[in-house]
Design brief:
Layout lengths: L1 H42 L4 H12 L3 H15 L5 E24 L7 E26 L10 E3 L6 E3 L2 E3 L2 E3 L2 E8 L11 E5 L8
């Protein structure tokens, strides 16, 4: 009986490395995958110089003029936006206004930029209309499909820096920070919302 227990114990001891080795390999693979996914997400972001170059070229302003607005956004939400939108919009208001725009959403994971449209109501104390260029930084967007939804404005987030207007919009963990350049541009949208879509829609909801 003792000999039988001895043999079983020896067999279990010998088998332990055989069991542990695949488990360790599996754990190491999982850790590597997690690290790789984390690095991949970090790699998907745009660096400061890329944003400054793309933004200044599109908005037609100097890097210095755009730099102040970019630094403010970076200080609030980080220096690695995962996407950006470059487009144009028209808007008008008499206390209550409407805003319509179109452009391209850029992500490093996309083979090419995708068309995007937006529209929405706004409430403010301004009156008038305008056409402006919009360069929006997007944070927390890893799947382009998730941009096509409604983004409420963040109250009190509107400000002017270097002749550019900036405000924030947020839905769950995704943040959009539009930078507007244009004569008579309005910031009332920070009290309303913008709805983004793949095709043009005229109804603001």
């Amino acid at each position: 009986m003792e000999r039988r227990h001895f043999l079983m114990g020896a067999a279990a001891t010998a088998a332990t490395p055989l069991i542990a080795s695949p488990l360790q390999a599996l754990a190491q693979t999982g850790a590597a995958s997690s690290s790789s996914a984390s690095q991949s997400r970090t790699a998907e972001g745009y660096q400061r110089d890329e944003i400054l170059r793309a933004g200044s070229d599109f908005l037609g302003v100097t890097v210095e003029a755009l730099g102040g607005a970019i630094e403010k956004i970076f200080s609030d939400y980080g220096d690695r936006p995962t996407a950006y939108i470059a487009g144009e919009e028209v808007s008008g208001a008499i206390a209550v206004g409407l805003r319509y725009g179109k452009g391209l959403v850029h992500m490093k994971a996309l083979p090419s930029p995708e068309k995007i449209f937006w529209r929405g109501p706004s409430v403010g104390f301004d009156t008038g209309g305008n056409a402006s260029r919009v360069f929006s930084l997007v944070y927390g967007l890893y799947d382009v499909e998730k941009i096509y939804q409604r983004f409420p404005g963040v109250d009190g987030s509107a400000y002017f820096i270097g002749g550019l207007g900036v405000n924030y919009q947020r839905s769950d963990d995704t943040i959009v920070a539009p930078i507007r350049a244009g004569v008579g541009f309005r910031l009332g949208a920070n009290i309303g919302y913008l709805a983004y879509s793949k095709s043009r829609k005229w109804f603001p909801a």
